[in-house]
Automatic annotation (TrEMBL):
Top-level taxon: Bacteria
Protein name per its UniProtKB record: Cysteine desulfurase
Catalytic activity: (sulfur carrier)-H + L-cysteine = (sulfur carrier)-SH + L-alanine
Family assignment from sequence similarity: Belongs to the class-V pyridoxal-phosphate-dependent aminotransferase family. Csd subfamily.
PROSITE patterns to which the protein is assigned, alphabetical: AA_TRANSFER_CLASS_5 (PS00595)
Source organism of the structure: Nitrosomonas communis
Coiled-coil spans in chain: none
EC nos: 2.8.1.7
């Protein structure tokens, strides 16, 4: 049996003591944003009360401290994903911003008319729309890896999509809508055999499993702080140093230059070349604190505990007549996307909220998945290590009472 992580760590999260509609909050919307432990809240307060100034510019006391703490957070992120060098970590405002950075910095420079970009049917809109914008601008073509009824990528079909015009692969590590974990290591290796670089959207993977970018050998890896118990407005792009150096900047401004005249600007080295303007310093330091917190618990322990929660929830929900889990694969993180016959997911969300239960309902910014399953939307319960089996029971009771209301 895995250790009861919730019993040990739940008390670290003050927001979980809230009552919603006079019921104890049951927070099952962790795939959208996870909650913040007191240590991260305290870190933000300490920064704001004793360390705040702008970074990289002045020689005064506070600026030096703020710079040191910001760069320490970068190294915390580097070690978290086992990147070779800290300059391979670029602070962005989130996953969306990181993917757009690669689209502008790499895509607009290296992808031409007639080239092809491979995406998958499991992508979040933020890993579709930027590539469509690029394809439209350049006259390039998007190719899509299909999925089966369990929500798994058809890897054979992926391999068949490659041809001499394939220039880029952008692929999610874990589906936000279904939870599917994709076999990205093999898919990256296959793309590399064809000389094609790969961007991994790690927004839903980094919170739930150990990620080692050197072992994966991905070219880019992106994720957001707010899904890892950190603040909003911060995320990272990991990129191999050589690739980052070959790219053009995404945004122009202060800090990303070595020298500027009206005739010519010389760009700074990486990572600063991609961090124009004053970055979200407080959020980056808070993100570092969140990563330290999660690393102390251990991502392997988190993965094992959440898997147990998932199995416990799946076993109960799958046996309820009239309830269907969408994407019921064995290789998934603790996400349950489901539909109840005869009840619109929006009503499911509203009625669960009356019981204090927070789930997400809708298309989860992944409309192509909904189209694939010919449904407008699902209800999605997504778990974190601070959720309990008792909360799963509350969700199951909630589903039963919704069915009663609609029967
Ligand atoms: N990709 C995936 C798989 C996601 O789940 C999300 C967030 N829902 C994003 C990208 C976008 O992340 P953000 O909104 O933090 O930029």
């Amino acid at each position: 049996p895995t250790p009861e992580l919730a019993a040990r760590y739940r008390a670290d999260f003050p927001i979980l003591n809230l009552k919603v509609n006079d019921k104890p909050l049951v927070y099952l919307d962790n795939a959208a944003s996870s909650q913040m432990p007191q240590s991260v809240i305290d870190r933000l307060i300490r920064y704001q009360t004793t360390q705040h100034a702008n970074i990289h510019r002045a020689v005064h006391y506070l600026s030096e401290i703020a710079t040191r703490e910001y760069e320490t957070a970068r190294r915390t992120l580097q070690h978290f994903i086992n990147a070779r060098e800290d300059r391979e970590i670029i602070f962005t405002s989130g996953t969306t911003d990181a993917i757009n950075l690669v689209m502008h910095g790499y895509g607009r420079k290296f992808i031409q008319s007639g080239d092809e970009i491979i995406l998958t049917n499991l992508e979040h809109h933020s890993n579709i729309v930027p590539w469509q914008m690029l394809a439209e601008e350049k006259g390039a073509t998007i190719r899509v890896v299909p999925i089966n009824d369990a929500g798994e990528l058809l890897v054979d079909e992926y391999e068949k999509l490659f041809n001499p015009r394939t220039r880029f692969v952008a692929l999610t590590h874990v589906s936000n809508a279904l939870g599917t974990i994709n076999p990205i290591k093999n898919m990256i290796a296959f793309a590399h055999q064809q000389g094609v670089p790969v961007l991994i959207d790690g927004a839903q993977a980094a919170p739930h499993m150990k990620v080692d970018v050197q072992d994966l050998d991905c070219d880019f890896y992106a994720f957001s702080g707010h899904k890892l118990c950190g603040p909003t407005g911060i995320g990272i792009l990991y990129g191999k140093a050589k690739l980052l150096e070959s790219m053009q900047p995404f945004k122009g401004g202060g800090d990303m230059i070595v020298s500027v005249t009206f005739e010519k600007t010389t760009y700074n080295t990486i990572p600063y070349k991609f961090e124009a303007g004053t970055p979200p310093i407080a959020a980056a330091i808070g993100f570092g604190a969140a990563i330290e917190y999660l690393s102390k618990i251990g991502l392997d322990a988190i993965a094992a505990y959440e898997h147990e929660l998932l199995n416990y929830a799946t076993e109960q929900i799958i046996t309820i007549p009239g309830v269907h889990i969408i994407g019921n694969t064995r290789t998934k993180v603790a996400v349950l996307s489901f539909i109840i016959d005869g009840v619109h997911p929006h009503d499911v969300g509203t009625l669960l909220n009356q019981e204090g239960i927070a789930v997400r309902t809708g298309h989860h910014c992944a409309q192509p998945i909904m189209q694939r399953f010919k449904i407008p939307a699902t209800s999605r319960a997504s778990f974190a290590f601070y959720n309990t089996k008792a909360e799963v029971d509350t969700l199951v009771e909630g589903i039963h009472s919704i069915q009663k209301v609609f029967s």
